[in-house]
Design brief:
heterotrimer; A alpha/beta; B alpha/beta; C mainly alpha; B: alpha/beta; Hypothetical Protein Ychn, Chain: A; five-stranded parallel β-sheet; 3 helices; about 25% helix; globular; C: mainly alpha; Arc Repressor Mutant, subunit A; 5 helices; about 10% strand
Chain lengths: ~140, ~100, ~110
C-alpha cells in the first residue's frame, strides 16, 4: 500500500434540486474503500445537505439524509461545516443532524464528527490536503 | 393583470430570486419551489429580497429539505400541490425563473 | 431487466439478479435466489441477511464489505465479524451475495 494521502471532499450544493449532493456522497463512500485520510467540508448551499428532519415523501425522491450517519462506519470522522455559510442562511448547528463516529479503541465511545469552523480555519484545513474534490 | 412568479433556485446559488423580486409589481405573487424554498428562511440573508412581496412556499419541498415552517419569514404562506394549482389559476400569467 | 419466480410469485430483478424494488422482498425469494447459487440458507445466513436489511432501513445504503464486517463484529461478536466467517457463509463475497438475498441493491462501490 502506498502512503496515505489526505483526501478532501468539498460539498457546496443543496441536496434535492440537483443530483450533485447524492453523487458526491456515493463517490465519498466508494473512495472510503481506499483507506485514505478522508475529510469532508460543507459550505455554501452544501450545508443544507445536513439539515435534520428531512422528509421527502411529498416529492417522491429518495431521502438520503440518513446516509450521512453511516459516514462514521466508513471511518470518516472529520466533517467540517462552514459557520459563515450556515449563518448567512439563517441556520445554526442546532438545525443540523448530530453526526457521530464510534471509537473502537475506546470501547465504541461516541464522538462528534462535525466541526464548526470559520472561513479562515477552513482555508487552513483545505491548504493541508493532498487531493481535493469539489461538488 | 397579476403574474405568478415561480422561483426554483437557491437564492445563494443563483440570481433568479433577486431578479424576479425586482420585476414584481402590483398584485403579483411569488411561489418558491424546489431549492427556491430556502429563500423564505427568516434569518437568512436572502429574506431581505422578499420584503413587501406576496410570497408562498411549496410545503412538500420545504419538508424534503428539513426546513420547519416555524423558521419561515412572517407572512409567508405554505401551500400544497393543490394550492399551487389554485395560484396558477388565480393569476393571469405565470413566469418561471429557471 | 429480468425476473425470478418464488412460490408462484414473480419478482422483477436487474440484469445482475438484484431485486428491482426492495419492497417486493420476502423470505421466499431469498431462498430461491440462494438455491440458484447452490446455497442452503441457515440461521447464520439469516443473521447476516437480517442485519443488512436493518442497516439499509437505517442508513439507506448497502454497506461496503469492510463496514459490514466491522458492524457484524460489533453486533454479533468477533468470531463472526471477520472475513473468513463471512466468506464461508457467502463465498461469492459477503456484501455482494448477502445483499442480493436481502433484496438490497448492489453495495455502493462494489464492481
Amino acid at each position: 500500500m502506498s502512503e496515505i494521502k489526505k483526501f478532501m471532499y468539498v460539498n457546496r450544493k443543496a441536496p434535492y434540486g440537483t443530483i450533485y449532493a447524492w453523487e458526491a456522497l456515493e463517490v465519498i463512500l466508494i473512495g472510503a474503500a481506499f483507506e485514505q485520510d478522508v475529510s469532508l467540508a460543507f459550505m455554501d448551499d452544501g450545508v443544507y445537505q445536513l439539515t435534520k428532519g428531512q422528509d421527502t415523501t411529498g416529492i417522491g425522491m429518495k431521502n438520503f439524509s440518513p446516509t450521512y450517519s453511516a459516514l462514521g462506519d466508513y471511518e470518516i470522522t472529520k466533517i467540517y461545516v462552514d459557520k459563515e455559510s450556515l449563518e448567512e442562511r439563517g441556520l445554526s448547528l442546532d438545525d443540523l443532524q448530530h453526526l457521530v463516529w464510534e471509537d473502537e479503541d475506546e470501547d465504541w465511545a461516541e464522538k462528534d464528527s462535525i466541526r464548526l469552523v470559520s472561513r479562515t480555519e477552513l482555508a487552513d484545513v483545505l491548504a493541508e490536503q493532498d487531493v481535493l474534490f469539489n461538488f | 393583470m397579476a403574474m405568478l412568479h415561480l422561483v426554483n433556485k437557491s437564492p445563494y446559488d443563483a440570481s433568479s430570486l433577486e431578479t424576479a423580486s425586482s420585476i414584481m409589481k402590483g398584485d403579483d405573487a411569488m411561489l418558491l419551489i424546489e431549492d427556491g424554498v430556502y429563500a423564505a428562511v427568516r434569518n437568512g440573508k436572502a429574506a431581505a429580497s422578499l420584503e413587501g412581496l406576496k410570497v408562498s412556499v411549496l410545503g412538500p419541498d420545504l419538508a424534503a429539505r428539513g426546513i420547519g415552517e416555524d423558521k419561515l419569514i412572517d407572512g409567508v404562506t405554505v401551500v400544497d400541490y393543490a394550492g399551487f394549482v389554485d395560484m396558477v389559476e388565480a393569476n393571469d400569467k405565470v413566469q418561471s425563473w429557471l | 431487466m429480468g425476473s425470478i419466480e418464488a412460490n408462484g410469485k414473480n419478482y422483477e430483478t436487474d440484469e445482475e439478479g438484484y431485486l428491482a424494488d426492495l419492497n417486493t422482498w420476502d423470505k421466499d425469494v431469498a431462498e430461491v435466489m440462494a438455491k440458484l447459487d447452490d446455497c442452503e440458507l441457515t440461521d447464520n445466513h439469516w443473521e447476516v441477511i437480517n442485519f443488512l436489511r436493518e442497516y439499509y432501513e437505517e442508513y439507506q445504503i448497502a454497506p461496503a464489505v469492510r463496514v459490514l464486517t466491522k458492524a457484524i463484529g460489533k453486533k454479533l461478536g468477533k468470531d463472526k465479524g471477520n472475513s473468513k466467517y463471512l466468506y464461508e457463509l457467502f463465498p461469492y463475497g459477503p456484501a455482494k451475495q448477502a445483499c442480493k438475498y436481502a433484496g438490497l441493491p448492489k453495495p455502493t462501490g462494489c464492481v
